[in-house]
Amino acid sequence: MRVLVSDNLGEIGIQMFQEEEGIEVDVKTGLPPEELKSIIGDYDGLVIRSATKVTEDLLEAATRLKVVGRAGIGLDNVDIPAATKRGIVVMNTPGGNVVTTAEHAISLMLALTRNIPRGTSSLKAGQWDKKKLQGREIYNKVLGVVGFGKIGSIVADRARGLRMRVIVYDPYVTPEQIEKAGFESASLEELYQKADYITVHVPKMKETMGLLNKDAFAQMKDGVMVINCARGGIVNEADLYDAITSGKVARAALDVFETEPPGATPLIELEEVICTPHLGASTREAQTNVAVAVADQIIQYLKTGTIINAVNVPSVTGELLKKLSPFLTLGNRMGCLQAQLCNEPLKEVVIEYTGDFQELDMSPVSTEILKGLLTPMIQDEVNSVNAPVIAKERGIKVTETTNAGSEDYLNLMTVRIVTTETTNMVSGAIFGQYEPRVVKINKFRLEMIPEGHSAIIHNLDKPGAIGSIGSTLGNHDINIAQMQVGQDEDGEHNIIFLRTDTPIPDDVVEELRNLPLIKTVTPLEL
Ligand SMILES: NC(=O)c1ccc[n+]([C@@H]2O[C@H](COP(=O)([O-])OP(=O)(O)OC[C@H]3O[C@@H](n4cnc5c(N)ncnc54)[C@H](O)[C@@H]3O)[C@@H](O)[C@H]2O)c1
Ligand SMILES: O=C(O)CC[C@@H](O)C(=O)O
């Protein structure tokens, strides 16, 4: 087995590969994409950090590749669907660098407050700018932490030690959990209004890109300081530039950028901005942790097939995987559907298998359901190994029952979720041998293929409703691939499920919502 290390990896990880019988390792860092493409076909394993871009083009040439291991967390440099399509396992090493990154956020906050970078450069330039560089205390100041996951919760804890008042916003963590950890839970608006410092620790995804933008800055306190140690783009750079030059935001500290490396941008040139070249995870300790973890995971996978911390495959034996495969797909889609239908903190998940399931261990399917449910909140982090652990850590109660005999289906899976606001139920079944279908959403029966760009619409059961939806989509050149109508028992309301060839843009969703007979429109990506 041959492993290529294409980015800088802690020496200990390289030694682990070298010492492993049956594994050969090559270290070739900083290769241009074409050169990497010309040699990738010789390797079974690839170890990366953030520099190597594992694109579809590269993967096409990776004919022997079985596993990509990221020494770190973020996988935004890996085309995961393309790897999955080729049966390549993608793994990361969550946890190894979280303390280090939290410490970097705290360091940046202190450096920003006490003008340390400016003090250093002015002194080195022969100046003694004591008055100009006066700072302030962080004692008793309010730190707003956006994202209370692994890093955000450590930042909050360290800031408490510095005697700051910490307020937290995380829509996927219940206020009780935040309060139990000893912090004040806040809405995003409250956090903007109260915080003297705002630090973001959310994953990079559609919902968090540009989270701190013009509108957000307008709601903040005058003189707020902003820290981004998460991912470039979560703080909109153009809007941040305007907010600093207008005096709204006093200063900002950035470790990550919309484009990396960013070059000399007007934002970076502002004296109110301090920055580091994506150094959040760069300590000896973190690099040792992630190097050991990635080497161990890749060796185990290549030598025994054991899968740890994979983000694109469940951890089951080959034989069981074959039997469960259609249910795994259905479970993942049902979880993903539930997460998009109820976008609130989860309290409970009840999974019921009814029918021909008695002989099977359905726990991998339950894990896939949880993975589908948690992925919209946590992204790269959730995998088939850690989804139940994450659910437990978040105080989500999960129960699984198996019952014989279903009236209407040979096999029926039902997922009921309880959030802080509501209860929602989705049932699904496998048609034929492999075809996943969602057959019930709460009281509405349907037969929906849970895949691709879709929408669920609730409407009044009156003439013209369906026509108005069709014309609106048609006017915007959006083709309907599948449409299903389910009626409730009193016959007054319908649920319409739509699958479209292209995503329905936000403005068209809004137009649909404004149609006279339409009650709600929920766009979905399944
Ligand atoms: N600078 C670096 O070198 C470095 C190193 C490691 C991680 N990171 C980045 O740090 C970030 C946090 O990592 P982590 O390990 O703590 O992740 P995590 O998954 O443990 O936590 C993310 C948290 O964000 C919350 N969240 C999701 N959407 C949200 C939203 N719209 N508003 C508020 N909260 C939301 C989730 O509920 C979760 O609790 C990620 O972007 C990661 O890529 C950067
Ligand atoms: O590898 C690095 O230095 C950055 C890692 C960090 O951004 C991560 O996502 O783990």
TrEMBL record:
Q: Name one GO biological process term.
A: L-serine biosynthetic process
Which reactions is this enzyme annotated as catalysing? (2R)-3-phosphoglycerate + NAD(+) = 3-phosphooxypyruvate + NADH + H(+); (R)-2-hydroxyglutarate + NAD(+) = 2-oxoglutarate + NADH + H(+)
- Tell me the enzyme class: oxidoreductase
Keyword annotations for this protein? Amino-acid biosynthesis, NAD, Oxidoreductase, Serine biosynthesis
Q: What is this protein called?
A: D-3-phosphoglycerate dehydrogenase
Gene name of the record: serA2
Q: Name one GO molecular function term.
A: NAD binding
EC no. given is 1.1.1.95
Q: Which family does it belong to?
A: Belongs to the D-isomer specific 2-hydroxyacid dehydrogenase family.
Describe the task this protein carries out: Catalyzes the reversible oxidation of 3-phospho-D-glycerate to 3-phosphonooxypyruvate, the first step of the phosphorylated L-serine biosynthesis pathway. Also catalyzes the reversible oxidation of 2-hydroxyglutarate to 2-oxoglutarate.
Q: Which CDD domains match?
A: ACT_3PGDH-xct, PGDH_4
| Residues covered by the ACT domain | 454-526
What pathway is this protein a component of? Amino-acid biosynthesis; L-serine biosynthesis; L-serine from 3-phospho-D-glycerate: step 1/3
The keyword Transmembrane belongs to this UniProt entry's keyword annotation:
no
Organism encoding this protein: Desulfonema magnum
